[in-house]
Amino acid sequence: MPSLFDFCVLGNGPLGAAAAWQLAREGASVCLIGARHDERVSSHNDHSRIYRTRHPDPYWTALAEANLPMMLELEQRTGIRFFRSTPVYYDGIGNVPLSDQPYLTRNGLNHQDPCGGIIDPLAYIRALNKAAREQGAIIRSTVVTSIHTLTCSHQVHTVDGNVARCKAIADFRGLYAKPIGQGTTVARTTLLIRHPPFHEPHCFIRTVLLDPQVGEFFACSHLDEDSSTQTSKFVLADAQPHLLNSSETLQAWFQDGYRHHPKLPWALDEIRRMGFEIQDLRLAPCAFTKTYDGRPKVQVDQSHLRFYGCNGGAVKCAQSLSRQVLTQGLMQAISTS
């Protein structure tokens, strides 16, 4: 183990894990530091994210399209499957008209993404970690408590009493990173529904909704199957985002606040109206950082790169986005040195 790493990457979510692998495969000595996913709240601590290439902002479309071959290559390299090709339907955008199917017609789902699917975030992280370790990266499962910047290096202190020394830091801690600019934290509630099977596995993103207080309603449907029941994960996005303005409100949301979202009755009625027979319901918290223009921000100061603002879209393009962030950050570092 080196006494001085080239990079410490902070945060072992999809972006941090992708950044660690990219740096390690380019020959850098890397220490990836992140909390265990079952010990610290995070929005990627589950097994489903919609992968889609159609997005109102072409910035996210380009990143998602670039990420697909990267994910497929990573699956082949590591033998860990985290991506499933699955139909993703829209009620307003897309390029592939659908055939007449009662479920889709009833719910106004009239277009299909050409490359849709479902990503398992935790399996994605496992694959990225495996690939990074194979390139020599060191991974520590702990929480950063403080960072001390010295003349030509940094010291990263962790809760277990250890210290990692490095020449540069790449900080991808998401909700736990120091905010940059005008970013805000947006809260959401996830509904996990068990129901009898009645449609093929699919995802949908609906934006044409009767309630003006709901901006989007989307789902990964039929995630886990057995002979008699299926599971679907629904999320509603408020037209006016519910903001968490402090670490205390963030913690409170993940502890119990998500159970009291004012639009939960609407969501349950809408799920039933769409044709789902609810047999069991579980709620889960979600939160992400949002920026004024819906795109991530990067700040570099004294070889310390900080990423902020996944805007709810980073998992589907973790590798392509981390590559872009690192390239942009290194260019900033060169221009200011």
Automatic annotation (TrEMBL):
Its cofactor is FAD. Pfam families: DAO. GO terms for molecular function: flavin adenine dinucleotide binding; sarcosine oxidase activity. SUPFAM superfamilies: FAD/NAD(P)-binding domain (SSF51905). InterPro entries: FAD-dep_OxRdtase, FAD/NAD-bd_sf, MTOX. Keywords: FAD, Flavoprotein, Oxidoreductase. Residues 6-84 form the FAD dependent oxidoreductase domain. This is FAD dependent oxidoreductase domain-containing protein. It comes from Litchfieldella anticariensis (strain DSM 16096 / CECT 5854 / CIP 108499 / LMG 22089 / FP35).
